[in-house]
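WP5 quarterly update. Target: GCN5-related protein N-acetyltransferase. Source organism: Beutenbergia cavernae. Length: 208 aa.
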Amino acid sequence: MTPDVHIRHAAPADRDALYHVCLLTGNSGKDGRELYADPEILGHRFAGPYLALEPDFAFVAEDSEGVAGYVLGAPDSAAFEARLERDWWPDLRERYPDPGDVDSDVRPRDPVIAHSFHHPPATDPGLLERYPAHLHIDLLPRLQGKGAGRGLMTTLLDALRAAGIPGVHLGVGAANTNAIGYYEHMGFHTVFESVNGRTMAMDLRTTG
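Structure tokens (predicted):
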């Protein structure tokens, strides 16, 4: 990792920066601003809950310009989903009414995200038996190629191992081929694949 990049635990004051990174990578790793009318809705779904509920497993990468990447994880996905239902989704359901069934290709995509607040997907229990943790990682272009992604991932994986977590999984869209290749290089393998994307996983007991 280049000397100008620093990795640290995320702090509550990083909230806006995390939301910004989430939006700027919200189109299969590319700028998602034109896909969402509400610039915060994507962050509410994929960044905010980790910062609020799992701060011990939330890390940021920053340079002289500020935070430009993050990795966010939950060591126990089932417990995390239960906490979301109790402590995170209720406020968002008040702010964003249930749009009902929506076309996944609708533009802007705000209704798709709002639908997920009211009908959050549950992780397959079979997957969680071996890979109970999950993570999200996003990095702005200015930090790519500087070792920041590997640094973030290694930091979180080490934290999960230290907590005794046996395995971790993540989801990646089918269009994000660069990310798929990167995850494979990091030691993840595909456990489920569809036309929309993949679920990839790593056994933390045998890799390091």
